[in-house]
C-alpha cells in the first residue's frame, strides 16, 4: 500500500512539473509573438490605455528595439485575428469592471429596421432602482454629445430617476461620449446616483470597439464641464459638430423609445435633455398623481419657455412670469415656429391663480392643432415615436398627432414648468436642419395615411389635402 501511495505522489509531481514547464513555454511564445510588437501612430487612444491585453500581460516592459530582427511569429494570420478579437474583449471587460460599464459592442439588440444597435443600461445610477421605487415619474430623455452637459442642471432640479438614451455615430465620437459620461459621474454625485444611460449606434458602419483615455479622465477639471465638452467637440471633426450631424442624421425618435422603455415607474416625463424641469417637479408630481384619477387616456402638459441666457433659472412660476413680462422669457419656439407650443395657451396658464405650490390642472387643451408637440407626462401606454423620422422635423409632433387621433386628452399643469436656454430665432438654425425637415415632411405623407387606416379617424381632416 505504501508503494502505491509513493507511485501516486510521484505521478502528481510529474504532472505538476509538466504543467509548469508548459506554462513557461506558452509565456515565452506569447512574449515573442507579433501581437505584442505594435506601436501604431493610428491608435493614439489605445496607447494611452493603461490596461494591457492578455497576451502581453507578462511582457509589459519587454524591450523591442529592432523589429526586423525579431523572431518570426509563431501564430498564423487567422490566429492573430482571433487574438486581436480576444484582446478587445479582454480590454472591454477590464474597462467595464473598472467603470461599471455594461457594454459589449459585439452584442446589443437591433431596432425594427436593422439599422441600429441598441444597448440598455450601459451605466446605471447607484440609486436608480431605489429612486424608481420612491417616485411615480421618471424623466426620459435623449441626447448626443453636444447637448449632454444639460444633464448637470436637470439632475439638480429633478429628484427622481432619469433614463437617458445617447447616440454615437462614429468610434471616435463614442470614445468621447463615454469619456464625458464618466467625467460627469466622477464630478457630479447626482448624475452618478440618478441617471441610467442607454446607447444607440449605427449597425453597419458604427463603432466596433471603444477605448477610454484614463489619464485624460483623471486630468479633466471638474470645475469646467463646458470647457471640457467644447474641447472634446473640437476634436470630432475639423468642420465642427454641425457637419457631422448633417452626415449622420440624429435618430431622435429611436432614442426616445429607447429611453422610455428603460423606465420602470408608472409615469414618464418625455423630454429632451436640454429641457430643464422646474425645481421640485418630481416631488410635486408624486402628490398630484397620487390623487389624480384619469378615467381615460390622459397626457399632462408641462408649459415650456425659452430663457434669455443672461438671467438665472426662475425658482418659481411667479418669477418666470415676471421675466416673460420683461421680454426675458417667452413660450418655447415662439419666434421659430409658433405652432410648436401654441395650443398650450400660455396666456391662460399665466393668468391661472395657484392657491399654493401643489400641482393642479390649469386647463384642458381645447384648440389642438397639427404640429403641436408639447412636453407631457403620461404612462408608457401612449403610442411609440415613429422611428422612420430621423433627424429634425416631424419627430415629436407626429407622435402627439397619433395620440390625439387615438383619443388622448391633454391637460396643462400648474405651477410647474420647464425651460430651454436661449431666445431662439430662425436665422440661428443651421441649413442641415431644414434639409432634414423637408425629408421628414415627405415621410409624413405616408405616416398620416397609416394613422387613418389604423384608427379610421381623421379629426383634423388631414386626408383632405397635403400638410
UniProtKB/TrEMBL annotation:
Lineage: superkingdom: Eukaryota
Transmembrane regions listed in the UniProt entry: 12-32
Gene Ontology, cellular component aspect: Golgi membrane
A molecular function (GO) term: glucuronosyltransferase activity
Membrane-topology annotation of the record: Single-pass type II membrane protein
Keywords: Glycoprotein, Glycosyltransferase, Golgi apparatus, Manganese, Membrane, Metal-binding, Signal-anchor, Transferase, Transmembrane, Transmembrane helix
Pathway: Protein modification; protein glycosylation
Protein localization: Golgi apparatus membrane
GO biological process, one term: protein O-linked glycosylation via mannose
Cofactors that this protein relies on: Mn(2+)
Catalytic activity, as annotated: 3-O-[beta-D-Xyl-(1->4)-Rib-ol-P-Rib-ol-P-3-beta-D-GalNAc-(1->3)-beta-D-GlcNAc-(1->4)-(O-6-P-alpha-D-Man)]-Thr-[protein] + UDP-alpha-D-glucuronate = 3-O-[beta-D-GlcA-(1->3)-beta-D-Xyl-(1->4)-Rib-ol-P-Rib-ol-P-3-beta-D-GalNAc-(1->3)-beta-D-GlcNAc-(1->4)-(O-6-P-alpha-D-Man)]-Thr-[protein] + UDP + H(+)
Sequence similarity: Belongs to the glycosyltransferase 49 family.
Protein name in UniProt: Beta-1,4-glucuronyltransferase 1
Organism field: Ceutorhynchus assimilis
Amino acid at each position: 500500500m505504501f508503494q502505491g501511495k509513493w507511485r501516486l505522489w510521484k505521478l502528481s509531481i510529474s504532472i505538476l512539473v509538466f504543467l509548469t514547464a508548459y506554462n513557461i513555454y506558452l509565456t515565452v511564445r506569447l512574449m515573442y509573438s507579433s501581437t505584442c510588437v505594435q506601436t501604431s501612430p493610428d491608435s493614439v487612444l489605445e496607447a494611452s490605455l493603461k490596461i494591457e491585453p492578455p497576451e502581453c500581460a507578462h511582457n509589459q516592459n519587454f524591450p523591442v528595439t529592432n523589429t526586423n530582427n525579431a523572431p518570426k511569429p509563431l501564430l498564423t494570420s487567422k490566429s492573430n485575428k482571433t487574438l486581436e478579437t480576444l484582446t478587445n474583449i479582454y480590454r472591454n471587460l477590464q474597462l467595464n469592471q473598472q467603470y461599471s460599464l455594461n457594454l459589449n459592442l459585439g452584442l446589443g439588440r437591433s431596432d425594427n429596421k436593422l439599422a441600429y444597435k441598441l444597448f440598455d443600461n450601459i451605466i446605471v445610477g447607484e440609486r436608480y432602482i431605489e429612486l424608481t421605487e420612491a417616485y411615480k415619474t421618471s424623466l426620459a430623455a435623449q441626447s448626443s454629445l453636444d447637448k449632454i452637459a444639460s444633464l448637470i442642471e436637470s439632475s439638480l432640479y429633478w429628484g427622481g430617476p432619469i433614463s437617458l438614451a445617447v447616440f454615437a455615430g462614429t468610434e471616435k465620437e463614442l470614445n468621447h461620449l463615454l469619456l464625458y459620461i464618466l467625467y460627469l459621474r466622477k464630478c457630479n454625485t447626482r448624475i452618478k446616483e440618478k441617471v441610467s444611460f442607454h446607447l444607440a449606434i449605427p449597425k453597419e458602419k458604427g463603432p466596433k470597439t471603444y477605448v477610454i483615455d484614463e489619464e485624460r479622465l483623471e486630468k479633466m477639471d471638474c470645475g469646467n464641464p463646458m470647457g471640457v465638452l467644447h474641447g472634446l467637440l473640437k476634436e470630432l471633426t475639423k468642420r465642427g459638430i454641425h457637419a457631422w450631424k448633417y452626415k449622420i442624421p440624429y435618430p431622435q425618435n429611436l432614442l426616445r423609445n429607447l429611453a422610455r422603455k428603460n423606465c420602470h415607474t408608472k409615469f414618464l416625463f418625455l423630454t429632451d435633455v436640454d429641457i430643464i424641469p422646474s425645481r421640485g417637479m418630481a416631488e410635486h408630481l408624486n402628490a398630484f398623481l397620487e390623487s389624480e384619477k384619469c378615467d381615460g387616456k390622459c397626457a399632462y402638459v408641462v408649459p415650456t419657455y425659452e430663457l434669455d441666457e443672461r438671467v438665472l433659472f426662475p425658482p418659481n412660476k411667479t418669477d418666470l412670469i415676471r421675466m416673460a413680462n420683461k421680454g426675458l422669457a417667452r413660450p418655447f419656439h415662439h419666434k421659430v415656429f409658433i405652432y410648436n407650443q401654441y395650443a398650450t395657451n400660455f396666456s391662460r396658464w399665466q393668468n391661472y391663480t395657484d392657491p399654493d405650490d401643489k400641482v393642479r390642472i390649469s386647463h384642458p387643451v381645447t384648440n389642438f392643432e397639427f404640429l403641436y408637440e408639447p412636453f407631457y407626462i403620461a404612462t408608457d401606454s401612449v403610442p411609440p415615436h415613429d422611428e422612420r423620422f430621423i433627424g429634425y422635423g416631424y419627430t415629436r409632433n407626429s407622435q402627439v398627432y397619433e395620440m390625439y387621433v387615438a383619443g388622448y386628452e391633454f391637460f396643462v399643469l400648474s405651477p410647474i414648468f420647464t425651460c430651454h436656454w436661449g431666445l431662439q430665432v430662425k436665422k440661428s438654425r443651421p441649413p442641415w436642419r431644414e434639409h432634414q425637415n423637408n425629408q421628414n415632411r415627405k415621410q409624413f405623407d405616408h405616416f398620416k395615411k397609416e394613422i387613418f387606416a389604423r384608427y379610421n379617424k381623421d379629426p383634423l381632416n388631414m386626408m383632405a389635402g397635403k400638410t
